[in-house]
Amino acid sequence: MSEEPRKGLFRRKPKDPNKKPGRLAQMKQVYELSAKHNKATPWLLAAAILGCTLLGLLAGLLFGGAVFTTILGFMVGLLLGMFMLGRFAETAAFAQMDGQPGAFGAVLNTARRGYLMDDKPIAIDPKSRDLVFRSTGRAGVVLLSEGPKGRSAKLLAKERKRHERILPNVPVHTFQGGNEDGQLKMKQVVPAVQKLPRKLNKNEVLAVRNRLAALGTQGTRPPIPKGIDPNKARPNHKAMRGR
């Protein structure tokens, strides 16, 4: 008598939905996103890699060491292609997010050089649904509004006064995000923030964030605490050590 084959003997393990994709999978996703919005993406990447490789070969034929210079040119081409792909993907992501609520907050969150952004908008207009986002860094507090210029300006000014009242010695910078004149487009947000002059050290930034944690969001905000001077505040050393 023949035995029945065991079911599930060679069954694949189910994929973990929480597992992050690998580096190659991430690169594939970035490339697909870029190619979807820019049909010339593969041609531009190929031109960068082949162009640098040919330049390396030409340099080797003229000065010697053609093999080394060709490989070097190819590697430079790969780096250039990676840089171009990142730019293309950023442009595609901005185009995909354009018009969606919270898009400017997502862009502000990409300003990683010493900035920490709040997970949610700090102010929401219940009628117009205009938003204000906040990020804290070495330049001080950055407030970014999302909505029509004239309408969101009132909400942004209100939040600026609120922050200046509780942080009298901390710079508060305001920007308007949008496509109208005088507003920052998505691609302009991060460069504008990173150009701000640095005024605070790491300990002062941490002290400011601890104070801002008591603010909450508009509508559910607790009583405003008294102002502090970050130069005299005592930093939370346990938090700085990651505990």
TrEMBL record:
Protein name as it appears in the record: DUF4191 family protein
Check the record and name the InterPro entries matching this protein: DUF4191
The transmembrane residues are: 43-64, 70-89
Query: What's the domain of life for this entry?
Result: Bacteria
Tell me which Pfam families the record gives.
Answer: DUF4191
Bias (Basic residues): 234-243
Chain residue ranges for the region called Disordered: 1-23, 217-243
Q: Which UniProt keywords apply?
A: Membrane, Transmembrane, Transmembrane helix
**Keyword Ribosomal protein attributed:** no
Q: Which organism is it from?
A: Brevibacterium aurantiacum
